[in-house]
Amino acid sequence: MPEPAGIVMVGASLAGLRGAEALRRSGYAGPLTLVGAEPHRPYDRPPLSKHVLVGDLDADATRLPELASLHARWRLGSPAIALDRTNRTLRLADGTALAYDKLLIATGAEARSWPAETGGRLSGVFTLRGRDDAAALRAAVQARPRRVLIVGGGLIGCETASCLRDLGLAVTLVDPNPTPLAASLGTFVGGVIADCLRDAGAAFRPGTMVRAFEGDGSGRVVRARLSDGGAIEADLVIAALGATRATGWLQGAGLMADPGGVTCDAACRVLDAEGAPCPDIYAAGDVARWPIPLYGNRLVSVEHWGNAVEQAGHAARNMLARPDDQRPYQHVPAFWSSQFGINIKLVGLTAGADALAVVQGSRASRRFLAVYGRNGRSIAALSFDQARWLPAYAQAITAGGAFPPILDATDQPRIETAAPGFPPRATAPAPSRSETVHA
Amino acid sequence: MKIVADAKPLRVVVDLNRCQGYAQCCYAAPDAFTLRGHEILFYDPAPPAARRGAIERAVQACPVRAISLQAGADDGETP
Ligand SMILES: Cc1cc2nc3c(=O)[nH]c(=O)nc-3n(C[C@H](O)[C@H](O)[C@H](O)COP(=O)(O)OP(=O)(O)OC[C@H]3O[C@@H](n4cnc5c(N)ncnc54)[C@H](O)[C@@H]3O)c2cc1C
Ligand code: SF4
Question: In 10 A of CB A290, how many CB atoms?
Fold first, then answer.
């Protein structure tokens, strides 16, 4: 008998690795292959926009620990370019055909790059997603650019702004919204980050859209042209515009997949074009989009580290389970970020929140815990240097607890309730086609 | 005696969603874990093999089990 094809993970990063480890831990002893577009063994991305950029860590120090004996075949440096479900085969860019019995799609996301027509190819224009991007950006930063422009005030835009100010570079951050992080956390909280930027000596330009970048004779970026006719001079640009899911290679595979993600059922099985779950194809991590019961079964893709780990583990479990034992994935989205010396953590989804209550600390002190509410329920909790309080609120959120949260602590000051201040969708930077929780 | 395998750096990752900033790891392995500001944990993801004992103590000391360590050799073939 020929050897079985076994299980193939496409995407050799956090979700692919943790999924592979979970398979081995659960006793899977068959062939296991990890296919990765990048030449590197799995590495950790969060430090790239933090410690790697400031120079506290080398980009190649971020390799992830391998926590189980994988005995895997690694196919690195050659992306999957097509999926043939009928013959259960993948095609790789190097021309190989790779058979599978079961497949985990874990291809993650790609940085949304600046369009070439409006200056995206100029040297000095960077995006930050992978290890090589971080190393290149770090080298450019070490050359001490005179003026840095960061386009997009999401988590990566803010983290990089913080790092570059630590290095003493002249930084301008532009965003179409009134504050940074407005789309994910609202302007009430985003206002704190706007203050941090100013205190750190960075220029923040709200309500600002870049139309195009212009270069000099040698093709180096020199300025950004704005939609309002103005311009900002810069010799280094970081386009931090969010990400699109890496689903291009699934075109023609007959799956529900687009730049917003690959759609799964609650058990992490990928849906075919008719909406039926494929029994042999699963997805996990940034690339996956699935219904979350806690949030009314909205289809959401979650671009956060913790989801990649948990969802991959869950998908691995279901990959090995019988068809009548496919358990639903229960997950409460959560992320952390660090910027301007503050540890920021969120549990839950803020989308659609209609109220916000500061339940510990104060916004002025930049140490607080805020709860987001929607229709009288607590849906998310956010901490700025108050992480110890977060688990308690996370529990309330999972249980669908009331908003404002009822507190009986007598030392509690009067709870400040405010509008979270989400900007209207239309002004959000580069809106994606489906709902995404940005990292 | 051969100590070649041990010369490779260790691999560490901390689940910073889970980490509560208790700083127990910083006491156990101060060369590998530090707190910055009020509660930002900074750690060395590739500490030298000689720190293995201290890091194993940090793994044990963390009350929320947020630290993962790879101490064994790498396996698998890379074409
Ligand atoms: C700079 C940065 C900072 C971050 N900071 C935080 C943070 O502080 N907190 C947090 O919670 N999250 C953070 N995140 C998000 C977190 O890193 C991601 O959620 C996580 O990496 C998702 O893992 P993944 O394996 O699903 O996808 P990815 O890490 O994107 O990995 C997908 C892999 O698949 C490969 N691939 C793509 N297409 C193909 C193909 N066709 N064939 C084969 N391989 C392919 C890619 O090369 C990549 O290696 C950050 C992300 C970035 C980029
Ligand atoms: S001991 Fe654990 S919880 Fe405490 S700081 Fe270290 S990793 Fe975080």
Answer: 27
Residues of A in contact with B56 (CB under 8 A): none
Question: Could you tell me what percent of chain A has a pLDDT over 70?
Answer: 94
pLDDT confidence tier of residue A5, bands split at 50, 70 and 90: very high
CB contact under 8 A, A65 and B68: yes
Counting from 1 in the atom list of ligand 2, the atom nearest the Cα of B61 is 1
| Residue A358 CA to its chain's centroid (Å) | 26
What lies within 8 Å, CB to CB, of A168 at 6+ separation is: none
Cα separation, A424 vs A353, whole angstroms: 13
User: Are A36 and A74 a contacting pair, CB within 8 Å?
Assistant: yes
Query: Quick check: CB of A11 below 6 Å from ligand 1?
Result: yes
The answer to whether the CB of A332 is under 6 A from ligand 1 is no
Instruction: Work out the pLDDT band at A429, boundaries 50, 70, 90.
Output: very low
The 3-state secondary structure of chain B reads: CCCCHHHCCCEEEECCCCCCCCCHHHHHCCCCEEEECCCEEEECCCCCHHHHHHHHHHHHHCCCCCEEEECCCCCCECC
Which residues of B touch chain A, with CB atoms under 8 Å apart? 9-13, 15-17, 19-21, 36-40, 42, 44-46, 68-70, 72, 74-79
| Listed residue (A207, A193, A184) closest to A162, CA to CA | A193
pTM exceeding the 0.90 threshold for the entire prediction:
yes
Peptide bond into A4 cis (omega under 30): no
Instruction: Work out the angle between the directed axes of helices A155-166 and A187-199 (0-180°, nearest 10).
Output: 20
Residue type for position B44: D
Chain A nearest-CA residue for B79: A75
pLDDT computed for residue A435 by the predictor: 59
pLDDT, residue A1, reads: 62
- For residue A47, which atom of ligand 1 is closest to its CA? 3
> From the CA of B68, how far away is ligand 2's center (Å)?
11
Q: What is the pLDDT of residues A153-200, one digit of tens each?
A: 999 999 999 999 999 999 999 999 999 999 999 999 999 999 999 999
User: Is pLDDT at A109 greater than 70 in this prediction?
Assistant: yes
- Backbone torsions φ then ψ of A92, nearest 5 degrees: -100, 160
Average pLDDT of the segment spanning A77-89: 98
pLDDT for B74 beyond 80: no
Instruction: Please list every residue in chain A whose beta carbon sits closer than 8 Å to the beta carbon of residue B16.
Output: 46, 305, 336
A71: distance to nearest CA of chain B, Å? Answer: 5
Q: In the predicted model, what is the mean pLDDT of residues A1-29? A: 95
Place A436 in a pLDDT band, splitting at 50, 70 and 90.
Answer: low
pLDDT in tens, A117-166: 999 999 999 999 999 999 999 999 999 999 999 999 999 999 999 999 99
Instruction: Decide: helix, strand or coil at residue A161.
Output: helix
Query: Is there a contact between A219 and A393 (Cβ–Cβ < 8 Å)?
Result: no
Is the Cα dihedral A296, A300, A303, A309 positive or negative?
Answer: positive
- Cβ proximity of A212 and A98 under 8 Å: no
